[in-house]
């Protein structure tokens, strides 16, 4: 399951703003995006990931992504940072 890697990551971002900043700085190994997130929220992140050739893993729900990150609310996106 792709979320296991996110759960055990030593460094990660949670949320689209933090994740987008990390992608822009070239610090991201892989990005996770919830399929049920609002497109206007995640589209800038998706576009930046494409520009920077960062792999994107689609997750079914924001709730599942939030739980994998250890938070009690949903998250539109998250990322594993490079060591």
TrEMBL record:
The record's listing under Pfam families reads:
Ribosomal_L7Ae (PF01248)
Q: Which UniProt keywords apply?
A: Ribonucleoprotein, Ribosomal protein
Transmembrane stretches in the record are none
Q: Which InterPro entries match?
A: Ribosomal_eL30-like_sf, Ribosomal_eL8/eL30/eS12/Gad45
Q: What residues does the Ribosomal protein eL8/eL30/eS12/Gadd45 domain cover?
A: 6-82
A cellular component term, taken from the record's GO annotations: ribosome
This chain belongs to the protein called 50S ribosomal protein L7ae-like protein
Question: Which organism's genome codes for this protein?
Answer: Heliorestis convoluta
């Amino acid at each position: 399951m792709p979320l296991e890697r996110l759960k055990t990551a030593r460094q990660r971002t949670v949320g689209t703003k933090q994740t987008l900043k990390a992608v822009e700085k070239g610090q991201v190994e892989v990005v996770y995006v919830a399929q049920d997130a609002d497109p206007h929220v995640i589209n800038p992140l998706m576009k930046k990931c494409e520009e920077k050739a960062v792999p994107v893993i689609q997750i079914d729900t924001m709730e599942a992504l939030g739980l994998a990150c250890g938070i009690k609310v949903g998250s539109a996106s998250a990322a594993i940072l490079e060591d």
